[in-house]
Sequence to fold (221 residues):
Amino acid sequence: MDNFLELIKWEKLILAMKETIYMTSISVIATFLIGLLLGLLLFLTAKGNMWENKLVNSIISVIVNVFRSIPFIILIVLLIPFTKILVGTMLGANAALPALIIGAAPFYARMVEIALREIDRGVIEASQSMGANNGHIIFKVLIPESLPALISGITVTAISLVGFTAMAGVIGAGGLGHFAYLEGFQRNNSVVTAAATVAILIVVFIIQFIGDYFTKITDKR
Fold:
């Protein structure tokens, strides 16, 4: 057992785990904000809703569908010129952020739209009949009523983002994926690969636990 443990470069593993947590945290926050905005626009501009606008809804829907459909590894390659302009390099944790956010936000936007559609229209109509303005309906009715589903959705998205960071790591973005590929696969060290896998699982379990906790305490049913 000691021999196995000695094969793992613990300092590099801890650094890689910190990079994965950093990439995931930043991209989750940005994904939540952008995805929430896109999801609200998709819902509000749909037929029969407050801001009904077929053209705007169609444009946003196409953008969401296109970026949601592109495989993440291909998206990273497509965004290389944009990432270089924005970050200045294609290497390191910061270089992975544009692809992570652009890849995950459309996915979450659809989850937001679905969550909003599940709200009882009677609640919205009751608010309108009492003279509530659009801002009040959005922030006092739509978001609070759909909050458990929104939290559950961002939890699923965050777990997907952990997997995305591992893929990004293979092409030099850092994190546990890069550690597993460079120190494990390329050096034929299965112990390192297994250690990186366990570390990723720990991150995923923590995210799931936090997500389940906040979903439970916000669910009023």
